[in-house]
């Protein structure tokens, strides 16, 4: 019986990972909600926090179309097949991302802490992510999406995430 517990935990982790990744392309019955705390004072930091939060919310919202997700992801076209392939997965219903902090790293980069929940239950808590500003628009960093994809592939990055394939566009 003790051997069954690790197997069940592994299966649960795989199912959860699949659900989180599917959140990038599935319609959800409830809109994604995001709770944000500004990390620094000042109007520009508040604007940064809201802009980055909006991008994360759109990217993880199941009602967002694949094309819109591609548009808010850095180098989104490189991931178009992956995002479109996940678009019909039923696992993402009820998945959302809550952004807990956004901290500017420089004028075009921000560090993001977010939690992915499944049906209201936190699944991936306090994930470290990034946002980048590309031609004036904030986007989810490709490296953040690659980190989530690597969970699904057990540490083997998909082709667009391979070294040199994901080149920052900012």
TrEMBL record:
Signal keyword on record: yes
Phylogenetic placement of the source organism: Bacteria, Bacillati, Actinomycetota, Actinomycetes, Mycobacteriales
Keywords of this entry: Signal
Pfam families referenced in this protein's UniProt entry, alphabetically: Mtb12_C (PF26580)
Domain Low molecular weight antigen MTB12-like C-terminal stretches: 48-153
Family label: Belongs to the MTB12 family.
Alphabetized InterPro entries for the sequence: Mtb12-like_C (IPR058644)
Protein name: Low molecular weight antigen MTB12-like C-terminal domain-containing protein
Organism: Nocardia terrae
Secretion signal, residue range per the UniProt entry: 1-22
């Amino acid at each position: 019986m003790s051997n069954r517990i690790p197997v069940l935990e592994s299966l649960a982790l795989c199912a959860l990972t699949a659900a989180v990744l599917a959140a990038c392309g599935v319609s959800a019955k409830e809109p994604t909600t995001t709770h944000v705390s500004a990390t620094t004072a000042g109007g520009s930091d508040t604007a940064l926090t809201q802009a980055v939060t909006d991008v994360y919310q759109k990217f993880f919202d199941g009602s967002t179309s694949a094309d819109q997700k591609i548009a808010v992801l850095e180098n989104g076209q490189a991931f178009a097949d992956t995002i479109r392939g996940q678009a019909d997965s039923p696992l993402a219903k009820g998945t959302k991302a809550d952004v807990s902090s956004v901290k500017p790293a420089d004028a075009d980069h921000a560090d993001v802490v977010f939690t992915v929940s499944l049906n209201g239950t936190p699944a991936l808590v306090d994930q470290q992510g990034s946002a980048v500003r590309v031609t004036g628009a904030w986007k989810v960093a490709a490296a953040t999406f690659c980190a989530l994809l690597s969970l699904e592939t057990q540490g083997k990055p998909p082709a667009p995430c391979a070294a040199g394939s994901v080149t920052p566009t900012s």
